[in-house]
Design a protein that fits this description.
Strand order of the largest sheet of chain B: 15-16-14-13-12-11-10-17
Order of helices and strands of chain A: HHHH
Structural class of chain A: mainly alpha
Shape of chain B: globular
Helix content of chain B: 40-55%
Distance between the termini of chain B: 63 Å
Number of strands of chain A: 0
Oligomer: heterodimer
CATH topology of chain A: Non-ribosomal Peptide Synthetase Peptidyl Carrier Protein, Chain A
CATH class of the largest domain in chain B: Alpha Beta
Strand content of chain B: 15-25%
Structural class of chain B: alpha/beta
Strand content of chain A: under 5%
Radius of gyration of chain A: 12 Å
Shape of chain A: globular
CATH architecture of chain A: Orthogonal Bundle
CATH superfamily of chain A: ACP-like
Radius of gyration of chain B: 26 Å
CATH architecture of the largest domain in chain B: 3-Layer(aba) Sandwich
Number of strands of chain B: 17
CATH superfamily of the largest domain in chain B: SGNH hydrolase
Largest sheet of chain B: 8 strands, mixed
Number of helices of chain B: 25
Number of domains of chain A: 1
Distance between the termini of chain A: 12 Å
Number of domains of chain B: 4
Chain lengths: ~80, ~650
């Protein structure tokens, strides 16, 4: 699975967690772009992504990803390593 | 995305097929009748939802909160703990919805659980909870002990921590009257010594065990309920329930993946507090209680008991069911079989663990099973929403879920060795009390079958009742009976005039109030003891009239003694004692619910006069003048007052 596919899946997860089917997700999108994207939603997105891609993030990785693009790249790396 | 492979999945529930579509449909159908709408929401909740699905369904529940029918049971829950608990709220609410209960949850701000209890002006008390769940981590109760602490020092530290907690319980109870639910701390510090841990009193493992035991004793003494996550987590593995990355990141002790599972455990107890636990277990026979089909394979061909691993597994399942029967779960059979052939399995098969007299009802014919369950419900006078139906056949399960959605239908695994775990993990029969009555319940229902046979052979009701040779023993509430009385107050739905639910603390409050008259009655007859089955609470009337009136705040009877004219005898006792207490009139109230239509005309039939009826709510008030010499006749039984 390449980065654009991962981004598309992530966008789906994010819209699902935020319960906002019209939210536009780009590689630059981050928590600051949506009023409902609080720490609770953030954790839910991370856990949903772990479930979806069958991977497990480390604490430092969770903190390093600042936007959707970073996050997708991180997932791609982890999927490859797995 | 489904949590079905997670160790924390709700594996006893059917998979959530078409979840997104069903939620979308429900969202669009806003013109539905509120009852149908709530039933549809409940049906969606009754699936193996993962945490995202749980969140989405909870949002839908919240959006439609104002359309929930007024007679749906509700409970206000306060959550207090030292970790982040907010993500458990949707899980608790959806798991409660699964049981037909609507829960409003208030979560104490992070790190403030102790302050909120101590401060009488806090948000905790302003919320007026009906139940308070305390879920502090071990480290919030007790600081680390030095490793050279002696056993006596460790015991002292643990006792102090538990005493401190018990004081908080009492404070909450005195200020709210709420049921208190204490979580058993389950997330232990990692071992320092490994297998030698238990030999070192100050080690994390030894301290956790000591605290666990002390908590059991304190909770029993204070009448506090336990949410025993420690034991529940043991079967799954704490590392599946908690995620250390999320603990460090967000102080979540429970991972979102495990939230639906923890929420279901919490909701079980909330439902039990509200009397919504299941009571009846209806069992299929072929390939459920034994391997094979008795109609085809014959008595000698079915697989149960020694001789094969599968036979051992079926026997182990039967032993578990028998123990459940001994606990007070009412057992019944619904099988598509020839009745005589099916019965022969229980009377003639040497390896059969369950016997014919373990079943309060035995339905074996070729008609559909929802009809059989309706007959069983009628026979036992128990509501279908207290039924669990166990069947290995997916088609029978699907039919039952469709026709009788209020019946719980576990998704039985294919292998018989997994049946016990499926039923045990589903937690259908959660209790908030256990009394000696419970152990006799199944036997009492079995005896009822014999009474029914007598009834059909006797000419008229008068002689039937006399033939029963009943004795009714009435007394004020006694301390030893309080758990059973509280259980009846919270479980009885049909013969219940006002359906007011009270906690054990409130029941004790009535006992201590000299202005309140309490009555508890036991009924026995020639078939055995029916146990404590009737409860009446009278308090001074506050309707503003000048006469000295006592109002029947609560009057209920267990449905297993209905039709025995016990109500006449109870009224005779209550009227006499009210008169002795100086009352001129006894007031009765009927508050209609979906289930108590049975007693709508009770007061009229007992000779009360109608005073008032509220046409909107259907609530009615009745008066029974105590100056009248007329008292109901009680010569069909022997009446004793102690």
């Amino acid at each position: 699975m390449d980065v654009p596919d991962i981004q598309a899946s992530l966008a789906e997860i994010i819209r699902d967690v935020l319960d906002d089917p019209d939210f536009e997700v780009t590689p630059e999108t981050s928590a600051a772009d949506h009023s409902d994207w609080d720490s609770f939603s953030h954790i839910s997105i991370i856990v949903a992504a772990e479930m979806r891609f069958g991977i497990k993030f480390q604490t430092a990785e969770i903190e390093s990803a600042c936007n959707v693009g970073d996050f997708a790249a991180l997932i791609a790396r982890k999927c490859q390593a797995a | 995305m489904s949590g079905s492979h997670s160790p924390c999945s709700l594996h006893w529930l059917p998979p959530a097929d078409r979840f997104a579509a069903r939620v979308a449909e429900l969202r669009d159908r806003t013109d539905d009748d509120p009852e149908q709408r709530f039933a549809a929401l409940r049906a969606v909740a009754d699936h193996r939802l993962d945490f995202l699905e749980t969140r989405r369904l909870d949002r839908l529940l919240e959006e439609t909160a104002d359309t929930v029918p007024a007679d749906v049971p509700r409970l206000r829950l306060s959550l207090l703990g030292s970790a982040t608990l907010d993500h458990l709220v949707p899980a608790i609410r959806v798991a409660a919805l699964r049981r037909g209960l609507v829960v409003d949850v208030d979560v104490t701000p992070f790190g403030q659980w102790r302050q909120q209890i101590l401060d009488p002006e806090s948000a905790l008390y302003a919320f007026e909870p009906g139940c308070v769940l305390l879920a502090p981590d071990l480290s919030a109760l007790l600081s680390e002990l030095p490793l050279d602490a002696t056993a006596a020092e460790a015991a002292l530290a643990v006792d102090e921590a538990v005493d401190d907690l018990a004081q908080l319980w009492r404070m909450v109870r005195d200020r709210t009257g709420a049921a208190i639910l204490q979580e058993t701390p389950w997330l232990d510090a990692p071992p320092l010594y490994g297998h030698f841990e238990r030999h070192v009193p100050g080690s994390p493992g030894a301290v956790a065990r000591r605290l666990d035991r002390a908590l059991d004793e304190a909770a029993a003494k204070e009448g506090v309920l336990l949410l025993d996550l420690r034991s529940a987590v043991y079967g799954i593995g704490a590392h599946h329930v908690s995620d250390s990355a999320l603990w460090h990141h967000a102080k979540q002790a429970v991972s979102p993946l495990a939230a639906p599972w923890v929420g279901d455990h919490i909701a079980r107890i909330l439902a039990a507090i509200r009397g919504l636990s299941k009571k009846v277990l209806v069992l299929d026979l072929d390939n459920t209680l034994w391997g094979g089909v008795i109609g085809d394979d014959g008595l000698d061909g079915i697989v149960v008991g020694q001789g094969s691993a599968a036979g051992e597994a079926f026997a182990a399942f039967q032993r578990y069911l028998k123990r459940l029967g001994g606990r007070g779960v009412v057992l019944a059979v619904s099988s598509k079989n020839d009745r005589a052939v099916a019965r022969a399995a229980f009377t003639d098969h040497p390896e059969m663990v369950l016997r014919i007299d373990d079943f309060a009802s035995f339905e074996a014919d070729w008609n559909d099973k929802p009809a059989a369950l309706r007959r069983i419900a009628e026979e036992l006078s128990l509501g279908l929403d207290s039924f669990v139906f166990v069947d290995d056949n997916p088609a029978e399960r699907a039919l039952m879920r469709q026709i009788l959605p209020q019946v719980a239908v576990p998704e039985l695994p294919e292998a018989p060795e997994l049946y016990v775990r499926c039923l045990a993990d589903a937690g259908y029969f959660e209790a908030v009390s256990f009394t000696a009555e419970d152990t006799r319940r199944n036997a009492q229902y079995v005896a009822n079958r014999e009474r029914r046979e007598l009834e059909s052979s006797t000419q008229d009701i008068e002689s039937f009742l006399r033939d029963l040779r009943m004795t009714l023993q009435v007394s004020p509430f006694r301390s030893a009976d309080v758990p059973r009385i509280t259980q009846l107050i919270n479980k009885t739905n049909q013969f219940n005039m006002t359906t007011r639910r009270y906690t054990e603390a409130e029941v004790r409050g009535f006992m201590q109030d000299p202005k309140v008259l309490t009555f508890a009655a036991r009924l026995s007859d020639r078939f055995g003891d029916n146990g404590l089955t009737s409860v009446v609470i009278c308090r001074p009337s506050d309707d503003g009239r000048t006469e000295a009136g006592l109002e029947i705040d609560t009057w209920l009877m267990s449905c297993r003694i209905l039709g025995r004219r016990i109500e006449q005898a109870m009224l005779a006792v209550v009227a006499e004692k009210a008169s002795e207490a100086g009352a001129d009139v006894l007031l009765g109230r009927y508050r209609p619910t979906k289930k108590n239509g049975l007693v709508k005309e009770l007061y009229r039939n007992l000779g009360f006069e109608l005073r008032e009826i509220n046409n909107r709510t259907g609530e009615s008030t009745w008066a029974f003048p105590l100056s009248m010499p007329a008292r109901p006749a009680t010569d069909h039984l022997q009446l004793q007052y102690e």
